[in-house]
Amino acid sequence: AKAVAGPVTTGQASSAPPRWSSFPRARLGPVCPVPAAAGPPAPKGPPVIELCRLEDLKPGEVTRFADLDGLDAPIAVVIVNGDVFAIDDTCTHEEASLADGALNDYCIECPYHSSNYDVRTGVPDAPPATKPVRRHDVTVTDGVVFVKISADVAS
């Protein structure tokens, strides 16, 4: 038998296109494997940063974190009623560190002009500050505090 390199014809001219079923079937070789990823895929979205052990934070105190990989601005972290909160540490009115202010219930008072930022929302209660600071999501896993940095632009 002779191998045919195209459609099988009967020798008669035809204006109809050849039927695909009349072509010889190609033999497929082994399928190339897709390379395995080196570990889990990189998370999309804002970075998640390991901050500290939960026991390193003291309820009622504001702790400042800066110069960590993934942080684009310093953050202030507090424990209030057993919950951990994180907001940007810099007042939006002046360049004051909120960690230098007093924590009153869910609010951090700016040490310069007494605007209070709610740690649950980042919103100030009164002038001179009028713009909120970013609020960051916090999770605690096995006693380690992680912060997911807000995708919003730092003020």
Topology:
Elements: E1 48-53, E2 63-65, E3 75-80, E4 83-88, E5 103-104, E6 107-109, E7 116-118, E8 135-141, E9 144-148
Antiparallel strand pairs: 1-9, 2-3, 3-4, 4-8, 5-6, 6-7, 8-9
Describe this entry's structure for a reader:
The chain is mainly beta and 155 residues long. Helix content is 0%, strand content 26%. It has a six-stranded antiparallel sheet, with no helix packed on it. It has a three-stranded antiparallel sheet with strand order 5-6-7, with no helix packed on it. It starts with 47 loop residues before the first strand and ends in a 7-residue tail after the last strand. Mean pLDDT is 80; it is low at 1-10 and 28-32.
Structure annotation, total helices: 0
The gyration radius over C-alpha positions equals 31 Å
Give the mean pLDDT.
Answer: 80
Fraction of residues in β-strands: 25-35%
Q: Give the SSE order as H and E letters.
A: EEEEEEEEE
Could you say which structural class the secondary elements and strand pairing correspond to? mainly beta
Question: Based on DSSP secondary structure assignment, what is the total number of beta strands?
Answer: 9
Q: What's the main sheet like?
A: 6 strands, antiparallel
| Alpha carbon gap, first and last residue | 79 Å
Strand order in the sheet with the most strands: 1-9-8-4-3-2
How much helix is in the residues?
A: under 10%
